[in-house]
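Sample A.
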Amino acid sequence: MTVNHAASRPKSIRVPRILSIAGTDPTGGAGVQADLKSISAMGGYAMAVVTALVAQNTRGVRSVHLPPVSFLREQLEAVSDDVEIDGVKIGMLADADTVTTVKAWLDEVRPPIVVLDPVMVATSGDRLLAEDAEAAVRDLCRSADLITPNVPELAVLADASEAQTWADAVAQARLVSARCDTVVLVKGGHLVGDRVHDALVDARSAPEGSPVPDGLFEADAPRVDTECTHGTGCTLSSAMATRLAAGDDWPTALITVKAWLTRALRSADALHVGQGHGPVDHFVDLR
Protein backbone atom coordinates (compact mmCIF):
# COMPACT_ATOMS: atom_id res chain seq x y z
CA MET A 1 0.00 0.00 0.00
CA THR A 2 1.32 3.44 -0.92
CA VAL A 3 1.81 5.73 2.05
CA ASN A 4 1.10 9.45 1.82
CA HIS A 5 3.68 11.17 4.01
CA ALA A 6 2.57 14.75 3.25
CA ALA A 7 1.07 15.45 6.68
CA SER A 8 4.23 14.43 8.52
CA ARG A 9 6.81 16.27 6.40
CA PRO A 10 8.95 18.82 8.26
CA LYS A 11 8.79 22.42 7.03
CA SER A 12 12.55 22.57 6.65
CA ILE A 13 14.40 19.81 4.81
CA ARG A 14 18.16 19.68 5.23
CA VAL A 15 18.81 16.95 2.66
CA PRO A 16 15.92 16.69 0.20
CA ARG A 17 15.10 13.18 -0.97
CA ILE A 18 14.63 13.35 -4.71
CA LEU A 19 13.29 10.62 -6.96
CA SER A 20 14.21 10.54 -10.64
CA ILE A 21 11.75 8.71 -12.90
CA ALA A 22 13.50 8.39 -16.25
CA GLY A 23 15.30 6.27 -18.83
CA THR A 24 18.93 5.22 -18.76
CA ASP A 25 22.10 6.34 -20.53
CA PRO A 26 24.97 3.82 -20.40
CA THR A 27 27.52 6.58 -21.06
CA GLY A 28 26.30 8.49 -18.00
CA GLY A 29 25.57 11.88 -19.50
CA ALA A 30 21.78 11.88 -19.66
CA GLY A 31 18.71 10.22 -18.18
CA VAL A 32 18.77 8.60 -14.76
CA GLN A 33 22.57 8.72 -14.58
CA ALA A 34 22.65 12.47 -15.16
CA ASP A 35 19.80 12.97 -12.69
CA LEU A 36 21.60 11.10 -9.93
CA LYS A 37 24.69 13.25 -10.43
CA SER A 38 22.70 16.48 -10.59
CA ILE A 39 20.68 15.74 -7.48
CA SER A 40 23.84 14.87 -5.57
CA ALA A 41 25.69 17.95 -6.82
CA MET A 42 22.79 20.15 -5.68
CA GLY A 43 22.81 18.69 -2.18
CA GLY A 44 20.05 16.11 -2.39
CA TYR A 45 19.75 12.39 -1.72
CA ALA A 46 19.20 10.76 -5.12
CA MET A 47 16.88 7.85 -5.90
CA ALA A 48 15.78 6.46 -9.26
CA VAL A 49 13.03 4.46 -10.93
CA VAL A 50 13.81 3.30 -14.47
CA THR A 51 11.16 3.76 -17.17
CA ALA A 52 13.22 2.64 -20.16
CA LEU A 53 16.51 0.89 -20.87
CA VAL A 54 18.18 2.90 -23.62
CA ALA A 55 21.14 1.72 -25.66
CA GLN A 56 22.70 5.09 -26.45
CA ASN A 57 25.96 6.98 -26.37
CA THR A 58 27.10 10.52 -27.13
CA ARG A 59 26.44 9.95 -30.85
CA GLY A 60 22.88 8.67 -30.72
CA VAL A 61 20.26 6.20 -29.63
CA ARG A 62 20.52 2.61 -30.89
CA SER A 63 17.50 0.97 -29.30
CA VAL A 64 15.01 1.29 -26.44
CA HIS A 65 13.63 -1.50 -24.26
CA LEU A 66 10.56 -0.80 -22.12
CA PRO A 67 10.09 -2.91 -18.98
CA PRO A 68 6.46 -3.96 -18.30
CA VAL A 69 4.43 -1.16 -16.72
CA SER A 70 3.57 -3.56 -13.89
CA PHE A 71 7.26 -3.61 -12.98
CA LEU A 72 7.44 0.18 -13.28
CA ARG A 73 4.58 0.39 -10.79
CA GLU A 74 6.39 -2.00 -8.45
CA GLN A 75 9.49 0.20 -8.56
CA LEU A 76 7.47 3.32 -7.76
CA GLU A 77 5.66 1.65 -4.87
CA ALA A 78 8.88 0.18 -3.49
CA VAL A 79 10.20 3.71 -3.03
CA SER A 80 7.06 5.48 -1.82
CA ASP A 81 6.05 2.69 0.58
CA ASP A 82 9.32 3.19 2.44
CA VAL A 83 10.85 6.62 1.80
CA GLU A 84 9.46 10.12 2.28
CA ILE A 85 9.86 11.76 -1.10
CA ASP A 86 10.50 15.51 -1.05
CA GLY A 87 10.67 16.01 -4.80
CA VAL A 88 10.25 14.13 -8.07
CA LYS A 89 11.88 14.72 -11.43
CA ILE A 90 10.26 12.98 -14.40
CA GLY A 91 12.13 12.45 -17.65
CA MET A 92 11.76 9.95 -20.48
CA LEU A 93 8.41 8.14 -20.45
CA ALA A 94 8.46 6.73 -24.00
CA ASP A 95 4.83 5.62 -24.43
CA ALA A 96 1.27 6.30 -23.27
CA ASP A 97 1.04 3.34 -20.90
CA THR A 98 4.16 4.50 -19.06
CA VAL A 99 2.80 8.04 -18.78
CA THR A 100 -0.53 6.77 -17.44
CA THR A 101 1.19 4.57 -14.85
CA VAL A 102 3.36 7.41 -13.57
CA LYS A 103 0.41 9.83 -13.41
CA ALA A 104 -1.71 7.38 -11.43
CA TRP A 105 1.12 6.98 -8.90
CA LEU A 106 1.62 10.74 -8.65
CA ASP A 107 -2.08 11.29 -7.99
CA GLU A 108 -1.93 8.80 -5.11
CA VAL A 109 1.35 9.88 -3.50
CA ARG A 110 1.16 13.62 -4.30
CA PRO A 111 4.83 14.58 -3.78
CA PRO A 112 5.30 18.22 -2.72
CA ILE A 113 7.45 19.11 -5.75
CA VAL A 114 7.10 17.55 -9.20
CA VAL A 115 9.29 18.71 -12.09
CA LEU A 116 8.51 17.27 -15.53
CA ASP A 117 11.03 17.36 -18.35
CA PRO A 118 8.77 16.46 -21.30
CA VAL A 119 11.42 14.43 -23.12
CA MET A 120 10.47 13.99 -26.75
CA VAL A 121 13.68 14.25 -28.78
CA ALA A 122 17.29 13.57 -27.77
CA THR A 123 20.13 16.04 -28.44
CA SER A 124 21.17 13.69 -31.26
CA GLY A 125 17.76 14.15 -32.91
CA ASP A 126 16.46 10.69 -32.02
CA ARG A 127 12.79 10.60 -31.00
CA LEU A 128 12.25 9.38 -27.43
CA LEU A 129 8.45 9.66 -27.17
CA ALA A 130 5.89 7.84 -29.27
CA GLU A 131 3.69 10.28 -31.18
CA ASP A 132 0.52 8.73 -29.74
CA ALA A 133 1.83 9.52 -26.22
CA GLU A 134 1.90 13.29 -26.73
CA ALA A 135 -1.67 13.75 -25.49
CA ALA A 136 -0.87 11.77 -22.35
CA VAL A 137 2.17 13.95 -21.68
CA ARG A 138 0.07 17.10 -22.09
CA ASP A 139 -2.28 15.72 -19.45
CA LEU A 140 0.65 14.83 -17.19
CA CYS A 141 1.83 18.45 -17.36
CA ARG A 142 -1.16 19.36 -15.19
CA SER A 143 0.21 17.14 -12.41
CA ALA A 144 3.57 18.95 -12.41
CA ASP A 145 4.56 22.06 -10.50
CA LEU A 146 7.13 22.90 -13.17
CA ILE A 147 7.75 21.71 -16.72
CA THR A 148 11.07 22.26 -18.50
CA PRO A 149 10.67 21.87 -22.28
CA ASN A 150 13.39 22.87 -24.71
CA VAL A 151 12.42 25.03 -27.69
CA PRO A 152 11.36 22.13 -29.99
CA GLU A 153 9.36 20.48 -27.19
CA LEU A 154 7.76 23.80 -26.28
CA ALA A 155 6.55 24.14 -29.87
CA VAL A 156 4.94 20.69 -29.73
CA LEU A 157 3.14 21.56 -26.48
CA ALA A 158 2.02 24.90 -27.93
CA ASP A 159 0.88 23.39 -31.26
CA ALA A 160 3.06 25.96 -32.99
CA SER A 161 6.09 26.26 -35.22
CA GLU A 162 9.44 26.18 -33.43
CA ALA A 163 10.28 29.58 -31.92
CA GLN A 164 13.09 31.48 -33.66
CA THR A 165 13.43 34.32 -31.15
CA TRP A 166 13.46 34.58 -27.37
CA ALA A 167 10.28 36.69 -27.42
CA ASP A 168 8.48 33.99 -29.41
CA ALA A 169 9.67 31.30 -26.97
CA VAL A 170 8.38 33.28 -23.98
CA ALA A 171 5.04 33.81 -25.73
CA GLN A 172 4.73 30.07 -26.35
CA ALA A 173 5.64 29.40 -22.71
CA ARG A 174 2.81 31.70 -21.58
CA LEU A 175 0.39 29.78 -23.78
CA VAL A 176 1.54 26.40 -22.45
CA SER A 177 1.51 27.61 -18.84
CA ALA A 178 -2.10 28.78 -19.14
CA ARG A 179 -3.17 25.69 -21.08
CA CYS A 180 -1.49 23.19 -18.74
CA ASP A 181 -2.07 25.14 -15.52
CA THR A 182 1.56 24.93 -14.44
CA VAL A 183 4.79 26.95 -14.37
CA VAL A 184 7.03 26.65 -17.44
CA LEU A 185 10.80 26.98 -17.41
CA VAL A 186 11.48 28.07 -20.98
CA LYS A 187 15.08 27.45 -22.10
CA GLY A 188 16.86 29.39 -24.81
CA GLY A 189 19.75 27.05 -25.46
CA HIS A 190 18.47 26.13 -28.94
CA LEU A 191 18.27 29.78 -30.00
CA VAL A 192 21.13 31.83 -31.45
CA GLY A 193 23.00 34.57 -29.62
CA ASP A 194 25.98 35.22 -27.39
CA ARG A 195 23.88 34.84 -24.26
CA VAL A 196 21.53 32.04 -23.26
CA HIS A 197 18.25 33.12 -21.70
CA ASP A 198 16.05 31.04 -19.41
CA ALA A 199 12.82 32.13 -17.76
CA LEU A 200 10.20 30.96 -15.31
CA VAL A 201 6.77 31.73 -16.77
CA ASP A 202 3.50 31.56 -14.83
CA ALA A 203 0.44 32.51 -16.86
CA ARG A 204 -2.15 30.59 -14.86
CA SER A 205 -5.59 32.17 -14.52
CA ALA A 206 -5.30 32.46 -10.72
CA PRO A 207 -1.73 33.74 -10.15
CA GLU A 208 -2.29 34.70 -6.51
CA GLY A 209 0.50 33.19 -4.49
CA SER A 210 2.50 32.42 -7.62
CA PRO A 211 6.11 31.39 -6.89
CA VAL A 212 7.19 33.53 -9.86
CA PRO A 213 7.21 37.30 -9.19
CA ASP A 214 4.90 39.08 -11.68
CA GLY A 215 4.53 35.81 -13.59
CA LEU A 216 7.93 36.11 -15.28
CA PHE A 217 11.48 35.76 -13.99
CA GLU A 218 14.37 35.79 -16.46
CA ALA A 219 18.01 34.81 -16.04
CA ASP A 220 20.78 34.78 -18.61
CA ALA A 221 24.42 33.77 -18.91
CA PRO A 222 27.13 33.87 -21.58
CA ARG A 223 26.85 31.06 -24.14
CA VAL A 224 29.53 28.43 -23.60
CA ASP A 225 31.34 27.35 -26.77
CA THR A 226 31.21 23.57 -26.42
CA GLU A 227 29.71 20.53 -28.14
CA CYS A 228 29.27 18.86 -24.73
CA THR A 229 25.56 19.42 -24.31
CA HIS A 230 24.39 15.82 -23.93
CA GLY A 231 21.84 15.59 -21.12
CA THR A 232 21.60 19.29 -20.32
CA GLY A 233 17.80 19.09 -20.12
CA CYS A 234 17.91 16.15 -17.70
CA THR A 235 20.58 17.91 -15.67
CA LEU A 236 18.71 21.21 -15.39
CA SER A 237 15.35 19.70 -14.46
CA SER A 238 16.67 17.39 -11.76
CA ALA A 239 18.77 20.20 -10.30
CA MET A 240 15.69 22.46 -10.16
CA ALA A 241 13.68 19.74 -8.43
CA THR A 242 16.41 19.43 -5.81
CA ARG A 243 16.79 23.12 -5.05
CA LEU A 244 13.01 23.69 -4.91
CA ALA A 245 12.58 20.73 -2.56
CA ALA A 246 15.43 22.10 -0.44
CA GLY A 247 13.39 25.25 0.15
CA ASP A 248 14.88 27.74 -2.32
CA ASP A 249 12.42 30.26 -3.68
CA TRP A 250 11.92 29.77 -7.41
CA PRO A 251 14.05 32.66 -8.73
CA THR A 252 16.90 31.69 -6.38
CA ALA A 253 16.68 28.08 -7.54
CA LEU A 254 16.95 29.12 -11.19
CA ILE A 255 19.88 31.47 -10.53
CA THR A 256 21.73 28.80 -8.54
CA VAL A 257 21.12 26.02 -11.04
CA LYS A 258 21.90 28.13 -14.10
CA ALA A 259 25.22 29.34 -12.64
CA TRP A 260 26.21 25.76 -11.75
CA LEU A 261 25.23 24.42 -15.18
CA THR A 262 27.27 27.16 -16.87
CA ARG A 263 30.32 26.09 -14.87
CA ALA A 264 29.61 22.45 -15.73
CA LEU A 265 29.49 23.30 -19.43
CA ARG A 266 32.72 25.29 -19.29
CA SER A 267 34.66 22.36 -17.88
CA ALA A 268 32.87 19.65 -19.91
CA ASP A 269 35.48 19.36 -22.68
CA ALA A 270 38.11 18.32 -20.14
CA LEU A 271 36.18 15.11 -19.41
CA HIS A 272 36.95 13.68 -22.87
CA VAL A 273 33.87 11.44 -22.85
CA GLY A 274 32.65 10.17 -26.21
CA GLN A 275 33.02 11.23 -29.82
CA GLY A 276 29.70 13.03 -30.20
CA HIS A 277 27.90 15.46 -27.89
CA GLY A 278 29.71 14.82 -24.63
CA PRO A 279 28.26 15.22 -21.12
CA VAL A 280 28.56 18.24 -18.85
CA ASP A 281 30.83 18.07 -15.80
CA HIS A 282 28.24 17.59 -13.04
CA PHE A 283 30.88 17.59 -10.31
CA VAL A 284 32.83 20.60 -11.52
CA ASP A 285 32.65 22.20 -8.07
CA LEU A 286 34.46 19.21 -6.53
CA ARG A 287 37.44 19.34 -8.89
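Sample B, a different protein:
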Amino acid sequence: MGDLMELRHLRTFRVVARTLNLTRAAAELHYAQSSVTEQIQALEAELGAKLFDRGNRTLTAAGKRLVGYADQVLELVEEAKAAVDDERGEPDGDLTIGALETLCAHWVPGILSAYRTRWPRVRLTLEEGGRGELYQSVRESEVDVCFTFGDPPRDPTFATRKVGETPLVVIVPPGHPLAAKEELRTEDLRGVGFLATPKGCGFREMLDRIDGPVIDTEVGSLAALGRCVAAGMGCGIVPALVNHPGAVAVPLAGETADVTMTWRRRDEHKPGIAALLASA
Protein backbone atom coordinates (compact mmCIF):
# COMPACT_ATOMS: atom_id res chain seq x y z
CA MET A 1 0.00 0.00 0.00
CA GLY A 2 3.01 2.29 -0.22
CA ASP A 3 5.09 4.19 2.29
CA LEU A 4 3.11 7.44 2.24
CA MET A 5 -0.15 6.11 3.70
CA GLU A 6 -0.93 7.70 7.06
CA LEU A 7 -2.91 6.21 9.92
CA ARG A 8 -4.97 9.39 10.19
CA HIS A 9 -6.12 8.85 6.60
CA LEU A 10 -7.32 5.35 7.50
CA ARG A 11 -9.07 6.65 10.63
CA THR A 12 -10.80 9.32 8.58
CA PHE A 13 -11.72 6.80 5.88
CA ARG A 14 -13.27 4.48 8.46
CA VAL A 15 -15.51 7.22 9.86
CA VAL A 16 -16.56 8.42 6.41
CA ALA A 17 -17.26 4.80 5.38
CA ARG A 18 -19.53 4.40 8.41
CA THR A 19 -21.41 7.70 8.12
CA LEU A 20 -21.32 8.11 4.31
CA ASN A 21 -21.62 11.81 5.04
CA LEU A 22 -18.66 14.21 4.96
CA THR A 23 -20.35 16.77 7.21
CA ARG A 24 -21.13 14.23 9.95
CA ALA A 25 -17.68 12.65 9.62
CA ALA A 26 -15.98 16.04 9.93
CA ALA A 27 -18.00 16.86 13.05
CA GLU A 28 -17.20 13.49 14.64
CA LEU A 29 -13.49 13.82 13.87
CA HIS A 30 -13.34 17.54 14.79
CA TYR A 31 -11.88 18.37 11.38
CA ALA A 32 -12.91 20.94 8.81
CA GLN A 33 -14.87 19.27 6.01
CA SER A 34 -12.20 20.35 3.53
CA SER A 35 -9.61 18.47 5.59
CA VAL A 36 -11.70 15.28 5.46
CA THR A 37 -12.04 15.64 1.68
CA GLU A 38 -8.29 16.18 1.27
CA GLN A 39 -7.46 13.11 3.35
CA ILE A 40 -9.81 10.89 1.37
CA GLN A 41 -8.42 12.21 -1.91
CA ALA A 42 -4.86 11.58 -0.69
CA LEU A 43 -5.78 8.02 0.24
CA GLU A 44 -7.41 7.43 -3.15
CA ALA A 45 -4.33 8.83 -4.89
CA GLU A 46 -2.06 6.56 -2.83
CA LEU A 47 -4.14 3.47 -3.66
CA GLY A 48 -4.88 4.45 -7.25
CA ALA A 49 -8.58 3.70 -6.80
CA LYS A 50 -11.81 5.54 -6.04
CA LEU A 51 -13.19 4.59 -2.63
CA PHE A 52 -16.53 6.42 -2.73
CA ASP A 53 -19.23 6.93 -5.29
CA ARG A 54 -19.92 10.54 -4.36
CA GLY A 55 -23.01 10.80 -6.52
CA ASN A 56 -24.79 7.93 -4.78
CA ARG A 57 -23.06 8.36 -1.41
CA THR A 58 -21.94 4.74 -1.34
CA LEU A 59 -18.67 2.85 -1.09
CA THR A 60 -17.17 1.53 -4.30
CA ALA A 61 -16.09 -2.10 -4.48
CA ALA A 62 -12.55 -1.01 -3.60
CA GLY A 63 -13.85 1.02 -0.65
CA LYS A 64 -15.80 -1.94 0.69
CA ARG A 65 -12.68 -4.12 0.52
CA LEU A 66 -10.57 -1.49 2.28
CA VAL A 67 -12.94 -1.18 5.28
CA GLY A 68 -11.95 -4.56 6.73
CA TYR A 69 -8.24 -3.91 6.27
CA ALA A 70 -8.51 -0.44 7.81
CA ASP A 71 -10.22 -1.97 10.85
CA GLN A 72 -7.47 -4.58 11.22
CA VAL A 73 -4.64 -2.05 10.85
CA LEU A 74 -6.11 0.36 13.38
CA GLU A 75 -6.94 -2.41 15.83
CA LEU A 76 -3.35 -3.63 15.64
CA VAL A 77 -2.16 -0.10 16.39
CA GLU A 78 -4.39 -0.05 19.48
CA GLU A 79 -3.06 -3.46 20.53
CA ALA A 80 0.50 -2.15 20.20
CA LYS A 81 -0.37 0.79 22.44
CA ALA A 82 -2.01 -1.58 24.91
CA ALA A 83 1.12 -3.75 25.00
CA VAL A 84 3.22 -0.71 25.89
CA ASP A 85 0.68 0.28 28.55
CA ASP A 86 0.91 -3.23 29.96
CA GLU A 87 4.67 -2.84 30.38
CA ARG A 88 4.10 0.41 32.27
CA GLY A 89 1.44 -1.29 34.37
CA GLU A 90 -0.96 1.65 34.07
CA PRO A 91 -3.73 1.63 31.44
CA ASP A 92 -4.74 4.85 29.72
CA GLY A 93 -6.53 5.93 26.57
CA ASP A 94 -10.24 5.62 25.78
CA LEU A 95 -12.59 2.90 26.97
CA THR A 96 -16.18 2.81 25.73
CA ILE A 97 -18.59 0.82 27.87
CA GLY A 98 -22.12 -0.16 26.92
CA ALA A 99 -24.83 -1.40 29.26
CA LEU A 100 -28.55 -2.06 29.44
CA GLU A 101 -30.64 0.84 30.73
CA THR A 102 -31.27 -0.96 34.04
CA LEU A 103 -27.59 -1.66 34.63
CA CYS A 104 -26.62 1.89 33.59
CA ALA A 105 -28.92 3.25 36.27
CA HIS A 106 -28.42 0.79 39.11
CA TRP A 107 -25.22 -1.27 38.78
CA VAL A 108 -22.55 0.09 36.46
CA PRO A 109 -21.99 3.52 38.16
CA GLY A 110 -20.44 1.96 41.26
CA ILE A 111 -18.02 -0.09 39.16
CA LEU A 112 -16.99 2.87 37.00
CA SER A 113 -16.50 5.08 40.06
CA ALA A 114 -14.09 2.57 41.58
CA TYR A 115 -12.37 2.07 38.22
CA ARG A 116 -11.93 5.80 37.64
CA THR A 117 -10.43 6.23 41.12
CA ARG A 118 -7.93 3.43 40.48
CA TRP A 119 -7.12 4.29 36.85
CA PRO A 120 -7.64 8.05 36.37
CA ARG A 121 -5.77 8.17 33.03
CA VAL A 122 -8.45 6.13 31.25
CA ARG A 123 -11.12 8.26 29.57
CA LEU A 124 -14.45 6.49 30.04
CA THR A 125 -17.55 6.71 27.86
CA LEU A 126 -20.79 5.03 28.98
CA GLU A 127 -23.44 4.22 26.37
CA GLU A 128 -26.91 2.77 26.90
CA GLY A 129 -28.54 0.31 24.54
CA GLY A 130 -30.60 -2.80 24.03
CA ARG A 131 -29.06 -6.25 24.35
CA GLY A 132 -28.74 -7.05 20.64
CA GLU A 133 -27.56 -3.54 19.87
CA LEU A 134 -24.82 -3.77 22.51
CA TYR A 135 -23.50 -7.10 21.23
CA GLN A 136 -23.41 -5.74 17.69
CA SER A 137 -21.52 -2.66 18.89
CA VAL A 138 -18.91 -4.87 20.56
CA ARG A 139 -18.65 -7.02 17.42
CA GLU A 140 -18.06 -3.92 15.28
CA SER A 141 -15.55 -2.38 17.73
CA GLU A 142 -17.79 0.59 18.45
CA VAL A 143 -18.00 -0.45 22.13
CA ASP A 144 -15.08 -2.08 23.96
CA VAL A 145 -17.09 -3.82 26.68
CA CYS A 146 -20.77 -4.31 27.44
CA PHE A 147 -22.72 -5.38 30.52
CA THR A 148 -25.96 -7.32 30.07
CA PHE A 149 -28.13 -9.89 31.79
CA GLY A 150 -27.48 -13.45 30.65
CA ASP A 151 -24.99 -14.90 28.19
CA PRO A 152 -24.21 -13.37 24.79
CA PRO A 153 -24.91 -15.26 21.56
CA ARG A 154 -22.47 -18.01 20.67
CA ASP A 155 -19.87 -16.12 18.67
CA PRO A 156 -16.11 -16.76 18.42
CA THR A 157 -15.66 -12.97 18.44
CA PHE A 158 -16.77 -12.73 22.07
CA ALA A 159 -15.19 -13.41 25.41
CA THR A 160 -17.49 -13.19 28.41
CA ARG A 161 -17.44 -13.49 32.17
CA LYS A 162 -20.13 -13.54 34.83
CA VAL A 163 -19.39 -10.59 37.11
CA GLY A 164 -22.42 -10.57 39.37
CA GLU A 165 -26.00 -11.58 39.90
CA THR A 166 -29.19 -10.05 41.22
CA PRO A 167 -32.22 -11.78 42.78
CA LEU A 168 -35.44 -11.76 40.80
CA VAL A 169 -38.72 -10.47 42.19
CA VAL A 170 -42.30 -10.72 41.03
CA ILE A 171 -43.98 -7.31 40.81
CA VAL A 172 -47.75 -7.38 41.22
CA PRO A 173 -50.53 -4.78 41.40
CA PRO A 174 -51.62 -3.64 44.87
CA GLY A 175 -54.38 -5.93 46.12
CA HIS A 176 -53.35 -8.85 43.90
CA PRO A 177 -53.58 -12.25 45.70
CA LEU A 178 -49.80 -12.74 45.35
CA ALA A 179 -49.08 -9.40 47.03
CA ALA A 180 -49.90 -10.86 50.45
CA LYS A 181 -47.13 -13.48 50.26
CA GLU A 182 -43.70 -12.91 51.83
CA GLU A 183 -42.02 -15.08 49.18
CA LEU A 184 -43.08 -16.78 45.98
CA ARG A 185 -42.05 -20.02 44.36
CA THR A 186 -42.34 -20.81 40.68
CA GLU A 187 -45.30 -23.12 41.30
CA ASP A 188 -47.21 -20.12 42.69
CA LEU A 189 -47.07 -18.52 39.24
CA ARG A 190 -48.88 -21.22 37.27
CA GLY A 191 -51.79 -19.81 35.33
CA VAL A 192 -51.10 -16.23 36.48
CA GLY A 193 -51.24 -13.50 33.81
CA PHE A 194 -47.89 -11.81 33.18
CA LEU A 195 -46.56 -8.91 31.16
CA ALA A 196 -43.28 -9.44 29.32
CA THR A 197 -40.79 -7.57 27.21
CA PRO A 198 -40.33 -8.79 23.57
CA LYS A 199 -38.51 -11.97 22.55
CA GLY A 200 -34.72 -11.55 22.56
CA CYS A 201 -34.72 -9.31 25.62
CA GLY A 202 -32.85 -10.58 28.69
CA PHE A 203 -35.88 -9.95 30.90
CA ARG A 204 -38.05 -12.06 28.59
CA GLU A 205 -35.55 -14.91 28.89
CA MET A 206 -35.87 -14.76 32.68
CA LEU A 207 -39.61 -15.27 32.37
CA ASP A 208 -39.49 -17.87 29.58
CA ARG A 209 -37.29 -20.19 31.64
CA ILE A 210 -40.00 -20.45 34.34
CA ASP A 211 -42.76 -22.97 33.69
CA GLY A 212 -46.26 -21.78 34.47
CA PRO A 213 -46.80 -18.02 33.94
CA VAL A 214 -49.19 -17.04 31.14
CA ILE A 215 -47.82 -14.20 29.00
CA ASP A 216 -50.82 -12.21 27.85
CA THR A 217 -49.28 -8.77 27.20
CA GLU A 218 -45.98 -7.60 25.66
CA VAL A 219 -44.50 -4.17 26.41
CA GLY A 220 -41.48 -2.46 24.90
CA SER A 221 -39.42 -1.64 27.98
CA LEU A 222 -38.91 -2.52 31.61
CA ALA A 223 -40.09 0.94 32.69
CA ALA A 224 -43.33 0.52 30.74
CA LEU A 225 -43.78 -2.95 32.21
CA GLY A 226 -43.55 -1.56 35.75
CA ARG A 227 -46.11 1.15 35.03
CA CYS A 228 -48.51 -1.35 33.48
CA VAL A 229 -48.22 -3.65 36.49
CA ALA A 230 -48.88 -0.73 38.84
CA ALA A 231 -51.99 0.07 36.76
CA GLY A 232 -53.33 -3.43 37.36
CA MET A 233 -52.70 -5.04 33.96
CA GLY A 234 -50.87 -8.09 35.31
CA CYS A 235 -47.64 -9.24 36.96
CA GLY A 236 -44.01 -9.13 35.91
CA ILE A 237 -40.62 -10.62 36.74
CA VAL A 238 -37.77 -8.13 37.12
CA PRO A 239 -34.36 -7.84 38.82
CA ALA A 240 -34.63 -6.86 42.50
CA LEU A 241 -32.34 -3.86 41.96
CA VAL A 242 -35.09 -2.08 39.98
CA ASN A 243 -37.75 -0.12 41.89
CA HIS A 244 -41.23 0.19 40.36
CA PRO A 245 -43.37 2.73 42.27
CA GLY A 246 -46.98 1.66 42.67
CA ALA A 247 -46.24 -2.06 42.29
CA VAL A 248 -45.61 -4.58 45.07
CA ALA A 249 -42.34 -6.55 44.82
CA VAL A 250 -42.34 -10.09 46.20
CA PRO A 251 -39.07 -12.14 46.29
CA LEU A 252 -38.96 -15.15 43.95
CA ALA A 253 -37.19 -17.97 45.79
CA GLY A 254 -34.09 -19.42 44.14
CA GLU A 255 -34.25 -17.31 40.96
CA THR A 256 -31.46 -14.89 40.00
CA ALA A 257 -30.27 -12.99 36.92
CA ASP A 258 -26.59 -13.18 35.98
CA VAL A 259 -24.78 -9.97 35.05
CA THR A 260 -22.17 -10.64 32.37
CA MET A 261 -19.36 -8.60 30.88
CA THR A 262 -18.64 -9.18 27.17
CA TRP A 263 -15.71 -7.99 25.05
CA ARG A 264 -13.87 -8.99 21.89
CA ARG A 265 -11.72 -12.05 22.44
CA ARG A 266 -8.78 -10.50 20.62
CA ASP A 267 -8.82 -7.66 23.19
CA GLU A 268 -8.44 -10.09 26.10
CA HIS A 269 -5.10 -8.69 27.26
CA LYS A 270 -5.72 -4.99 26.80
CA PRO A 271 -4.87 -3.41 30.16
CA GLY A 272 -7.96 -1.20 30.26
CA ILE A 273 -10.30 -4.16 29.76
CA ALA A 274 -8.41 -6.41 32.17
CA ALA A 275 -8.55 -3.67 34.80
CA LEU A 276 -12.31 -3.22 34.24
CA LEU A 277 -12.89 -6.93 34.61
CA ALA A 278 -11.01 -6.87 37.92
CA SER A 279 -13.13 -3.91 39.10
CA ALA A 280 -16.38 -5.60 38.04
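Observation for Sample B: The CA atoms of residues 230 and 249 lie 11 Å apart.
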